[in-house]
Design a protein that fits this description.
By secondary structure, this protein is an alpha/beta fold. The protein has 14 helices and twelve strands. The strands form two sheets. The protein has a six-stranded parallel beta sheet, covered by helices on one side. α1 packs across α14.
């Protein structure tokens, strides 16, 4: 029996926890002890505890002293982590020390990490690590530098300077230096758990993506009549304007607003706008609808692709903006820019509902995906974990 630490360092919402839980459940069934170190323990407390796992707070990064930090462009992954504070020696040294101490106290035999560059930087090479992530959160470790695939704009950081800083701090801890900046994820296991359609590094990876960790879905014929499914968090700024639009619309809609109060659900519930109290199984819901509106989460985007559903994203973070751009570029959906008004949003929704070419492209992609092997991600990861544990 071994101890496996599951680490989650960056990213919003529960989209980073659910994949880790699926892997943890398999390893637990094999007799291993599980410990979770989570970025947001309040948000994921219920789901982690429901699975019966102990949980501790992961080292928490605060925004560095950058003016208008959330509005700063991040063309490459190097800029993403620089915006979190990785370019500041004092911040980085402190956070590396916190991860180092946590791992020393926990004494894991293996770490499974999602979107955790600081964890890798602090203990990579000292404790075996399996890195998982989607196309955005797990860039290829084989690259010599991070390409500008995320957005346009001036780089926030010089990648060579960042590499020098990383190696200086790793030298202080007696850890092997990196040859190139992407080496930060060059660990004992690397699994990009996504589909090619959502991978910004498609064509740049030496090891192809292994497929999603979400429960695989089957292609489903579109219903005869239009039906919209809205899936969004209560705190999402777009949820209010969307509910107002959908309440006035004649198109039947089912909505799940995660965390919405009873009062809010009752305010919008009507004969044609059904407000759900609890989460719904995508395998049951998506075949009934013709269009999905969501915030751009990778799991939801994947489910839409595999089922063959057009999607409209309301992305407000780098990760979701990138996914939305990829989906729109392939003609599989659309996205709504921040600040769009009711008329603009309504026009985008109506345009998608009437776009039969988009619907056909989505159907074709889902059929193609169903013929390929995208169902083995969890098995591949857990086999890798067992091999590592047997060899240590």
């Amino acid at each position: 029996m071994a101890k496996v630490l599951f680490g989650w360092e960056f990213g919003a919402s529960l989209g980073h926890i659910y994949p880790l839980l699926r892997i943890a459940d398999v390893l637990k069934a094999k007799g291993h002890d599980i410990l979770f170190a989570c970025r947001d323990v309040t948000q994921c407390y219920d789901v982690v505890k429901k699975h019966g796992y102990p949980m501790i707070q992961a080292p928490y990064w605060k925004n560095p002293p950058i003016a208008n930090v959330r509005g700063v462009a991040t063309p490459s992954y190097a800029d993403v982590i620089a915006r979190q504070g990785f370019g500041y020696p004092e911040i980085l040294r402190t956070m590396m020390s916190a991860w180092d101490d946590l791992v020393t106290i926990a004494k894991p035999d293996l770490i499974v990490a999602d979107h955790s560059p600081g964890l890798n930087l602090a203990v990579g090479g000292r404790v075996p690590i399996i890195n998982i992530g989607n196309g955005f959160t797990l860039p290829p470790a084989s690259l010599k530098e991070y390409p500008p695939v995320i957005t346009t704009g001036k780089p926030l950081v010089n990648q060579q300077r960042l590499l020098v800083l990383f190696n200086k701090l790793r030298h202080e801890k007696g850890l092997k230096p990196y040859r190139y900046l992407p080496d930060i994820f060059n660990s004992e296991g690397q699994f990009a758990c996504t589909l090619p359609q959502l991978d910004p590094y498609d064509g740049l990876r030496e090891v192809p993506v292994c497929g999603p960790l979400e429960v695989s879905l089957e292609p489903a014929k579109l219903p005869d009549d239009d039906h919209i499914f809205l899936y969004m968090a209560n705190e999402a700024a777009d949820s209010e304007i969307l509910l107002n639009i959908l309440q006035k619309s004649a198109v039947p809609t089912t909505a799940y607003i995660r965390g919405a109060s009873l009062k809010r659900r009752q305010r919008y519930h009507s004969e044609h706008l059904k407000m759900l109290e609890k989460p719904v199984d995508f395998a049951r819901m998506l075949p009934k609808v013709s269009l999905v509106l969501h915030s751009g989460g990778g799991g939801t985007a994947t489910s839409c692709l595999m089922t063959g559903r057009p999607q409209i994203m309301f992305p407000r973070q780098s990760e979701s903006k990138l996914s939305a751009r990829l989906i729109k570029a392939q003609g599989l959906g659309d996205s709504v820019p921040s600040g769009a008004n009711e008329a603009e949003i309504s026009a985008i929704i109506n345009g998608a509902l009437g776009n039969r070419d988009m619907s056909q492209r989505c159907a074709d992609i889902s059929i193609r995906l169903s013929k390929e092997d995208w169902r083995q991600a969890i098995e591949k990861i857990t086999i890798c974990a067992e091999d590592i544990l047997l060899s240590t």
